Amino acid sequence: LQECKIQNSSREYCKIFAAEARAVPDFGAVPEIIPLYLIYRPANNIPYATMEEDLGGPCEQYCVTERDGSLVTRGTSEIVLKCCTFQHWVYQWTNGNILVTDMEGVGWKMTNVRIATNRKGYQGLKESCFPSLLEQFTAAHQCNRYCSILGLKTLEAAKPKGSKSPSMGRKSAQSSPQLQK
Questions:
Q1: Which CATH number fits domain 1-150: 3.20.200.10, 3.30.70.2690, 3.40.1190.10, 1.10.760.10?
Q2: What is the pTM of this model?
Q3: Which Gene Ontology molecular function entries are recorded, alphabetically (predicted)?
Q4: How confident is residue 72, by pLDDT bands cut at 50, 70 and 90?
């Protein structure tokens, strides 16, 4: 149940990210997190299972958490850079409360998503990996051209508070976290 909640919540963040990225000229294609379904099989010894779309090929790891708890990106392809931008966007959008830590998939379709949170049960999500990744991410993330295209600000350790879209500055200066001083 928690795996479904994590992947499907990350999917919703990704949809908002995609809508904002598509509104910006020259951003191009965006990652899509595929849905993960929980199915109930009452006649089976294991009554619950998860099911998702077949991606049609072997998964590539774009952003992963290593065994030692470090967050690593695999390469510098457009997909990897946009996954990193998505991570930055979610971190900023949730004011440092959530970080999508693991993303793998085939092409632009992502699966096996994990998160780190700095509050237990933030929006009903329990951390699925090391919470120290939030601090590590702010120190290690190198903004790329896609972060710049979206107008994301350089990361600093954020104080947890409510959520606002990082791209709102283009629509309404009043509610933009980018323009607050």
A1: 3.20.200.10
A2: 0.81
A3: ATP binding; protein serine/threonine kinase activity
A4: confident
